[in-house]
């Protein structure tokens, strides 16, 4: 089975989706069935997923009605943390079997706090206490304000999923923030063997933006790079992971029982129908990685994904060439990734606000 092959190669399959019906359901799309039959060993959520789940279903109406005296923020926090806590329960066996590496469920801090360090820290700690499950991960956007929040949450013994990473430069800052957090955790006497982290590196949005720029240039050199940059960017991020994992600084922490932050490939649904719909999974397989997939991508992988083993490490040299060729076209990847970070925060903030507004309408009805 292809899910088994992917897992054996070192890439954990997580599902980028959650709703109450999926937690309690018994059909082929339910979470218990996915865990049993599809190799799913973790779940990620984001504001868009919760917006879709809660506003697109009647499953939450009675709960919202029962809490109508509370604010929309309080209601949404209760609904989302309840769902995540239940999902954590479904993965408790995997969490125990993998010594905490997998069996993880992520919940994101309010994306409107992405540029406020202390409020992000406060909300991260509040969510950690509210869900109160060891296999939880708190998602923190990789903004400049998010970096010190990552350090503080890790130092406090909280497992963190760093999200909205688009560039290798920002990814390096994320790794350094994580390592600083582990160092501080040891000083505070926290058990670093219980702290886990992933760094969510976004894929498909890179190709969407870069391809658009390359098509505008419309030269043989630019068109030859279509569909290559997102994967090359991720491959070079993995190279950075290998370099940091082998550093003397990390070696000391590893000897103390610490676990290195794993790269997680996010936004792996293929947006261009001209591309193979499994490419952001099958071309990004390597040890110590995670791929969180939307339902449609997971189903495509299970149905017709072609397994070629570790596809990242052999592609490192070629990926450097791709980036050099991109630079020659005049396309600025830095400018694109900076824009994508801003747009990503804005998109999640908009989805969160839409969820609050819809809950307010149901509450007031």
Helix-and-strand structural type: alpha/beta
Mean pLDDT across all amino acids: 97
Going by CATH, the architecture would be Alpha-Beta Barrel
Number of helices: 18
What characterizes the major β-sheet?
Answer: 8 strands, parallel, barrel
What is the string of SSEs from the N terminus onward?
HEHHEHHHHEHEHEHEHHHHEHEHHH
How many domains is the backbone divided into? Answer: 1
Short description:
With 365 residues, this protein is of the alpha/beta class. 57% of the residues lie in helices and 12% in strands.
Describe the structure.
By secondary structure, this protein is of the alpha/beta class. It has one domain (2-205, 234-310, 341-364): TIM Barrel (Alpha-Beta Barrel). Helix content is 57%, strand content 12%. β3, α8 (117-131) and β4 (136-141) form a beta-alpha-beta unit. The longest helix is centred in the C-terminal third of the chain and has 32 residues, at 333-364. The protein starts with a helix and ends with a helix. The mean pLDDT is 97.
């Amino acid at each position: 089975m292809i899910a088994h092959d992917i897992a054996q190669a070192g890439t954990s399959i997580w599902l980028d989706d959650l709703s109450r019906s999926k937690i309690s359901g018994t059909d082929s799309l339910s979470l218990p069935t996915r865990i049993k039959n599809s190799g799913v060993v973790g779940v990620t959520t984001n504001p868009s997923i919760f917006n879709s789940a809660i506003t697109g279903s009647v499953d939450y109406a009675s709960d919202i009605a029962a809490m109508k005296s509370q604010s929309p923020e309080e209601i949404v926090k209760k609904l989302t943390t309840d769902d995540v806590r239940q999902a954590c329960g479904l993965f408790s066996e995997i969490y125990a079997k993998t010594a905490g590496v997998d069996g993880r469920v992520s919940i994101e801090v309010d994306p409107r706090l992405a540029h406020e360090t202390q409020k992000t820290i406060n909300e991260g700690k509040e969510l950690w206490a509210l869900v109160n499950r060891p296999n939880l991960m708190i998602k923190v956007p990789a903004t400049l304000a998010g970096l010190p929040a990552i350090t503080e949450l890790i130092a406090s013994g909280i497992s963190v999923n760093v999200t909205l990473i688009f560039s290798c430069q920002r990814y390096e800052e994320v790794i350094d923030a994580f390592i600083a957090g582990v160092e501080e955790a040891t000083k505070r006497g926290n058990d670093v063997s219980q702290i886990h982290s992933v760094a969510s590196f976004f894929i498909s949005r890179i190709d969407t933006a870069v391809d658009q720029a390359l098509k505008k240039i419309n030269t043989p050199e630019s068109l030859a790079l279509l569909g290559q940059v997102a994967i090359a960017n991720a491959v070079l991020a993995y190279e950075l992971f290998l370099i940091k994992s082998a550093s003397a600084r990390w070696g000391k922490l590893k000897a103390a029982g610490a676990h290195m932050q794993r790269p997680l490939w996010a936004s792996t649904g293929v947006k261009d129908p001209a591309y193979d719909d499994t490419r952001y999974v099958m071309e990004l397989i390597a040890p110590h990685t995670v791929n969180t997939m939307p339902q449609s991508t997971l189903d495509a992988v299970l149905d017709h994904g072609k397994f070629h083993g570790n596809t990242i490490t052999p592609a490192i040299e070629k990926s450097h060439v791709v980036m050099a060729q991109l630079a020659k076209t005049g396309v600025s990847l830095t400018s694109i990734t900076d824009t994508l970070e801003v747009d990503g925060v804005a998109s999640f903030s908009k989805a969160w606000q839409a969820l609050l507004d819809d809950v307010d309408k149901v509450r007031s009805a």
